[in-house]
Amino acid sequence: MNKQELISTVADTSGLGKGDAVKAVEAVFDAISAALKKGDEVRLVGFGTFSVSKRKASTGRNPRTGEPMTIKASTQPKFKAGKGLKDSVN
C-alpha cells in the first residue's frame, strides 16, 4: 500500500472527503515527524512505538575501491510493532 492508497482507505472507512483524508494523513505524519525531531517517543497503544536512535560514527569500506572510509554519526528513526499489530498479522 502506498500513500495514495492509504488516503483512499482512510477516506472510505471514515466517511471523510478525499481532501479531508489527505489533511488527516499528512497531519499524522507531520505530528510523528515533529515529535521524533524533538527526540520524543510516539507510543500508539496496540499499534507500536516510534523512537529515535543515535548511531555512532564508524569505519566502513567503499564497495567500489575497497578503501576505508568514515561513516558519520547520525540519528535514525525506529519503529517497534506493538502486541496488537503483531497479533493482527499472525
Tell me about this structure.
- The mean pLDDT is 94.
- Helix 1 packs across helix 2.
- This protein has 3 helices and 5 strands; from the N terminus they run H-H-E-E-E-E-E-H.
- The chain starts with a helix and ends with a helix.
- It is elongated, with a radius of gyration of 18 Å.
- Helices cover 43% and strands 30% of the residues.
| Largest sheet geometry | 3 strands, antiparallel
Structural class: alpha+beta
Element string (H = helix, E = strand): HHEEEEEH
Write down how many β-strands occur, each being a DSSP E stretch of 2 or more residues. 5
Overall pLDDT confidence: 94
Morphology call: elongated
Beta content comes to 25-35%
Indicate the percent of residues in helices: 40-55%
Instruction: Identify low-pLDDT runs.
Output: none
The Cα radius of gyration reads 18 Å
End-to-end C-alpha gap: 19 Å
- What is the number of helical segments per DSSP (H or I, 4+ residues)? 3
Largest sheet: spatial strand order: 1-2-5
Provide the descriptors you would attach to this structure in a database record.
90 residues; alpha+beta; two-stranded antiparallel ribbon; 3 helices; elongated
Tell me the layout of helices and strands:
Elements: H1 3-14, H2 18-37, E1 42-44, E2 48-55, E3 58-61, E4 68-71, E5 74-81, H3 83-89
Produce a short descriptive summary.
The protein is of the alpha+beta class and 90 residues long.
